[in-house]
Amino acid sequence: MAEADPFRGEQAGNAASAAAIDHQQRTRARRWRAILMIIGPLVMIGGALWYWFGRPGEVDTDNAYVKQDIVSVAAEITGQVTSVQVRENQHVHKGDILFTINPANFEAGVDQADAQIASAQARITALQADVRANTVDIASARDDLALAEANFKRGQQLMDRGFNTRANMDEASHAVAAARDKVASLEAAVTRSRAQLATGTQVPGQNPGVAAAKAARARAALDLARTVVRAPADGVATQVTRLQIGQMVFPGVPMVSVVKDEGTRVEANFKETDLGHIRPGQRAELTLDAYPGLVLRGHVDSIGAGTGAEFSVLPAQNATGNWVKVVQRVPVRIAIDSHSDRPLIAGLSSDVTIYTGKD
Hints:
By secondary structure, this protein is an alpha+beta fold. It has three domains: 58-68 and 262-355, Efflux pump adaptor protein, beta barrel domain (Elongation Factor Tu (Ef-tu), domain 3); 70-103 and 226-260, CATH 2.40.50.100; 105-223. The protein has four helices and 14 strands. The protein has a six-stranded antiparallel barrel. It has a four-stranded antiparallel sheet with strand order 2-9-7-4, with no helix packed on it. A four-stranded antiparallel sheet has the order 6-5-3-8, with no helix packed on it. Helix 2 packs antiparallel against helix 3 and helix 2 runs antiparallel to helix 4 (208-225). 14% of the residues are buried.
């Protein structure tokens, strides 16, 4: 019998060794797969539990936006725009001129009011002159009345002795009556003139006619001053494109807006289930989607008095048979305490975390 081939034996040994190694690798892979199939769900469940319960001292929301006070500036008079002194997104200070209105009509109104004041003052002078003249006439009329009464008395004496006629007595009586009427008329004229010169308790020491004319003048001057429209606060002018030279403006119609520098805040809409731990004064952190990496400090300023649904134009009516409960959102105002080196633009999206300190 021929002797066995040593090369074949070595090949058979290598094949058996490779098969054993492959079997060990497959066994190890199955073992790791089983471990991962067990650990994977546990990790996912643990992560979910940590997300919900692992941060007991804070609540957060990404339903938050930067808010700023915006003042709509409108004209207080009717007129034509003659100049526009600002451009879009220009920073303005309180009192800066935004635009002007044609002042011609209002300057004429001031002149007319000045004429009314002069007319009222001239009328007072005339009334005072009338009082003085009528006072002199009253003295003269009283002298005439005294003379007429004396003539009537003498005529009556002559009548009693038979040296006078009834016609003369009637004429003397008529003269007395006429003199009395003249005195009464002049006294009434003086009383009327003094009444027109009198002052009331509302404007003591000043004639009502003059006071009314001065009030009209003040109103005309105010309207003239309103032809120059100024910025009501420090901020950024926007929506300036609505202003055009030659355009008519009307009271109460907004023509330009000013976004105020002060009062920047964040309005965060938290779930109603989070409100039990939120209190005014609690520390907060804010991040903005527009500026990655920027973290601002703040605090809870106040909690809204109603949910967003309550203040909507058409509030939800849940008195129906197909009602589904929805978690409501309540606005929470966050005051910004730290300074931002980037502009905080109204409407920017924000993420807010409130450190409630709950256990």
